[in-house]
Amino acid sequence: TEAALMQVLSGSRKHISQKKTIHAFEMQVNFGTLPKNRDGIQSHWQKQNQTVQEIKNMADALNFLSEHGYKSISDVKRALAEVDAQIAQNNTEIRALDAKLDELDHLNQHIYNYKTNKAVYDEFIRSGRSPDYFNQHKTNILKCIAAQEAISMCSDLKFLSPQSIIEDKSNAEERRKEIVANNLQLHTQRKQIKKCIEVIETRNERK
Q1: Residues 6+ apart with CB under 8 A from 191
Q2: pLDDT of 120
Q3: Is the pTM higher than 0.70?
Q4: How far apart, in whole angstroms, are the C-alpha atoms of residue 31 and residue 147?
Q5: Which pairs with CB-CB distance under 8 Å and at least 24 residues apart come from 90-94?
Q6: Residue 19: predicted pLDDT
């Protein structure tokens, strides 16, 4: 009270501190009866952790089903088949692009060989295909002939331009990068779908 406070301030009364009462709250968690031996306790906690992980996996699977609008495991398996088909199609296109890039590299080399050896080949023709001249410049002449044959087998005349080869190669490389990036996404999606199927099937087997 105010009177008691004045007495304490005047020194006629001793101040007595009030202790706060602390209420303790107990929380009991039932983890089951623990075994008495060490191996048994370790096995017990492993089972507890396994149960928690299974619940988490099931929750993840249900979220995955909801996010993608799947209503049954048949829908999920169908999605897996579609992803596998898309990956296979992408891999086929990647192989085709690799073959095209290899062809462009060879064609570019043939164009270079043709340009750098054409003067020697023309001189060989002017010599009346002299055997002596051929022996002296055999490597250059054969390179030019091989380049002519390779270029003549190309149905698209635009390949005769080194700049067009560079552009085609750049486009092919860019397309390949896009497909590889898409495949990475598909493989991640495939992993999620496979895990979802595994969780659902495991759950169904235990029912």
Answers
A1: none
A2: 94
A3: no
A4: 80
A5: 90/179, 90/182, 90/183, 90/186, 91/183, 93/179, 94/176, 94/179, 94/180, 94/183
A6: 46
